[in-house]
Specification:
The chain has 617 residues and is mainly α. It contains 38 helices and two strands. A hairpin with a 2-residue loop joins strand 1 (577-578) and strand 2. The radius of gyration is 35 Å and the shape is elongated.
Length: 617
């Protein structure tokens, strides 16, 4: 600041030597003398009030352009050294100088205003006092220094939420977009920074798109400047939050994905991170899910996923989660080596969101293929889930139990999962405070209990092992769901009991037949078709809740389905038995029962569809 201040002082002294002093008004001469004295004692002078501010104001409103230049320079120097909340008495002279026709005055005044606009209170007052209009005029100046300072000031003003809409409606976006293409890197940085600050609300993003910003931002992804890359990548990431904007990007910006994939290999960590987040937002749409894989985005995402830097791990995990939604991407992701890193992230206790993204991705990868389900189990996912699920946050529990429910759809894997003792952790979670965790855990148990083609060698001893423990075991869980006010839970319970009875396992059949806990509730459900008071039947809790598959089977008549299943159970419990099965169905799987084999297959199919079709954002 010393060099700048001496420049100010020399300004005044040069005017004296050129005999300007006689041309000054009396109050201007006094102001010059006062300001020179204040500048000599600048370390102890407060220029934002009293006589120092009066002197600066006098020079600012002078008709003498040299005095205006000196005042503007002084304001620029002072505000560079110290920024504080100021009042109208400080801003009025600076805004007056901003409207000057003189380039030097414009340059210094906009620098001073930009410095003051770092302060939150000042941001609001500058806009309130009409600062945007002269700033927009200066953005149109042919002088690069004036452009740079004016855009820099708008960038600072746009960091305050209360200013964003005003800036968007002020006419500033078109000149900002034009200046983003400036050949001067400082102007380009400030302009792209300002555009980024305007992308944080739906309305402002739309204004930005209307101003033609998208092609400019996309073209600047290839800038050699890291800051410009960062601002443009982040701005496009925010713009891609809106479905309509993603459609425009898909129609008009064919190089977008390739550029973003390349930026995931940037030397700058923050650019890598924002590139992954931009791809994550784009991957909300099927087209981009496929395009990212086609552009070899998986290679970079796998590297980021294995980083030690949390923002990179989080952004890449979120991106892979969305990419994994598309069934065609399941095998490429597995073949690229993602399974082990994803399983490792299940125990990433520093960040719940990372855990959620990792387990959701595994669930998506398991959705469509037996081969992929087998690969996921073989890689150790279920073992990790079993070790972690009772200790992780509730959101992660919900995702983990949903993943187990998907894996448990595989007839080939059910035996392995049961041998691993997965029921021991699922049963306690059926009593979770979260209805979603409860439903997913119960659905997983139901899927483990069912099988399309039963054989004499099927081993159901795992269910006998957990009949009474832990936490009251299957017995207590089934009772809790049978007596729930939620018809969805009632439905899961009766459906699961039917599967267990169909197993033909003598111990299981005996446990159910002799249960004084279950049978009264089953009889009540068999007799009553009165809907439960707060039934959620037909109303899935979310895309993750597997319980919806049971509730929605009977074309909206979930309670009728419950009654049919309950009566089916009573056929087992009350009827004559033949090898553990009622005589009416001893020779054929559920044939001739009140719930036909076709209906049972429909139940199973709906379960599969529910588990396979979830998408995440």
């Amino acid at each position: 600041m010393g060099a700048v201040s001496s420049c100010c002082e020399s300004c005044f002294r040069s005017r004296r030597s050129q005999q300007y002093e006689p041309l000054l008004l009396e109050n201007e001469r006094e102001a010059v003398a006062d300001l020179l004295q204040y500048l000599e004692n600048r370390t102890t002078t407060n220029f934002f009030q009293g006589s120092p501010l009066t002197a600066l104001t006098t020079l600012s409103f002078s008709d003498n352009v040299d005095l205006q230049r000196s005042a503007a320079l002084a304001f620029a120097e002072i505000t560079e050294k110290e920024v504080r909340p100021v009042g109208r008495d400080t801003l009025d002279p600076i805004l007056f100088l901003l409207s000057s026709q003189d380039t030097e005055v414009q340059r210094a005044a906009s620098a001073a205003l930009g410095n003051l606009a770092v302060n939150t209170d000042n941001k609001l007052l500058i806009v309130k006092l009409g600062g945007l209009e002269p700033l927009i005029r200066q953005m149109l100046s042919p002088n690069v220094e004036v452009q740079c300072n004016a855009v820099g000031c708008v960038t600072n003003l746009a960091t305050h939420d209360d200013n964003k809409t005003k800036i968007a409606k002020s006419g500033a976006l078109v000149p900002l977009t034009r200046l983003a293409r400036s050949k001067d890197m400082r102007v380009q940085r400030n302009a792209t920074g300002a555009l980024l600050n305007m992308t944080h609300s739906d309305e402002n993003r739309q204004q930005l798109v209307n101003a033609g910003a998208i092609p400019v931002l996309v073209s600047l992804l290839n800038s050699m400047d890291t800051d410009v890359q960062y601002y443009c990548t982040t701005a496009l990431s925010n713009i891609a939050v809106d479905g309509a904007n993603r459609k425009k990007l898909a129609q008009n910006e064919s190089k977008l994905v390739t550029s973003l994939v390349a930026l995931m290999d940037s030397p700058s960590l923050k650019v890598q991170c924002q590139a992954a987040l931009a791809l994550r937002n784009l991957a909300s749409d099927e087209k981009y899910q496929l395009e990212i894989v086609k552009a070899d985005g998986l290679t970079s995402l796998l590297r980021l996923l294995q980083s030690t830097y949390l923002p990179l791990i989080l952004s890449s995990a979120a991106c892979v989660r969305n990419v994994s939604i598309h069934p065609q991407n399941e095998s490429p992701i597995i073949e690229s080596g993602f399974l082990q890193p994803l399983i490792n992230l299940l125990s990433f206790k520093d960040n719940e969101e990372v855990q959620c993204h990792a387990i959701s991705t595994l669930r998506n990868l398991a959705a469509s293929s037996e081969k992929n389900k087998t690969a996921i189990v073989k890689a150790g996912a279920v073992q990790s889930i079993k070790e972690l699920v009772l200790e992780v946050p509730m959101n992660v529990q919900s995702e983990m139990t949903a993943c187990v429910a998907v894996l448990a759809l595989s007839d080939e894997l059910k035996g392995q999962l049961l041998e691993m003792g997965i029921c021991e952790v699922l049963i306690p979670l059926t009593n979770s405070p979260s209805s979603e965790v409860q439903g997913n855990s119960a659905a997983a148990l139901g899927n483990l209990s069912s099988k399309d083609g039963r054989t004499a060698s099927d081993d159901y001893s795992a269910f006998n092992d957990v009949w009474e423990k832990p936490d009251g075991g299957m017995h207590r869980y089934l009772y809790n769901f049978l007596t729930s006010v939620d018809a969805t839970f009632q439905h899961i319970a009766v459906w699961t009991i039917v599967q267990l009875l169909e197993s033909g396992d003598p111990q299981l059949v005996s446990n159910i037949r002799l249960s004084g806990l279950l049978n009264p509730s089953i009889r009540q459900l068999a007799l009553s078709r009165t809907p439960s008071a707060t039934s959620s039947a037909g109303t899935p809790r979310s895309h993750r809740s597997q319980s919806q598959s049971y509730a929605d089977t009977d074309a909206g008549d979930g309670q009728g389905e419950i009654q049919l299943l309950a009566r089916r159970i009573l056929e087992f419990v009350d009827g004559d038995v033949d090898g553990g099965l009622p005589r009416s169905v001893a020779g054929s799987h559920m044939a001739g029962s009140s719930v036909s084999s076709a209906r049972d297959e429909e139940l199973r199919r709906s379960v599969r569809e529910a588990f396979s079709s979830g998408s995440h954002h």
